[in-house]
Amino acid sequence: MCTPVGHGLAGIALSWRGSRRLDFRPAVWMPALCVLSVLPDLDFLPGILIGRPNVFHHGWTHSIVFCLAAAALIAAGLSAAGKPRPAATAGLCLLVLLSHLALDCLSKDRLPPRGLQLFWPFSERYVMSPIAVFLDVNKGVDNGTFLLRLATFHNVKTMLLETVLLGPLAAWAWFGNRRRKREAAA
Question: Are 95 and 12 in contact, with CB atoms under 8 Å apart?
Fold first, then answer.
């Protein structure tokens, strides 16, 4: 699985999709997309509550159905609030959510069950790419070691690799969005 650094960079990289068709203010939307990019990892919370953070990880929140449902809720909320282009905005949000699944599929996973339940509720099978582009995250299996194990040299290497691979795409999106905004204002 990728770290929040990798997921956030992917969210920023995908933000260029919103800058052309949506009323897109990067100072608002880029942080929002970064937060949205880690939404599937909310499945850590119930595990933390019972003292085993990983027990529910890569389950139903890492499915296409979850991403579609979250995007539909976003569209409904934006529509109810009278915001313009709720479907297009929700489409961008769906793209960011699906990027989380793609990055996790392309990451090493050493803890069983390996992979994620991509097709839940239609299948409980765990899916993982045979090619790992990203490293795994070294994390503890109980609440006492979960956060402490995150601060390891291995995880720093994981974040550096994610930054090297996804950082240029995020930088391109960031500067491209700023340039388009300046040109539109001129």
Answer: no
d(CA 164, CA 50): 36
- Note if the bond before 53 is cis, omega within 30 degrees: no
**How far out from the chain centre does Cα 80 lie?**
25
Sequence ranges of the domains in the chain: 4-185
Q: Residue 125: helix, strand or coil by DSSP?
A: coil
Determine what percent of the chain falls in helix, strand and coil, rounding each to the nearest 5: 65, 0, 35
pLDDT tens for 7-54 read: 999 998 988 766 666 766 767 787 888 899 999 999 999 999 999 998
C-alpha dist (Å) from residue 86 to 100, 143, 153: 21, 39, 42
pTM of the complete model beyond 0.70: yes
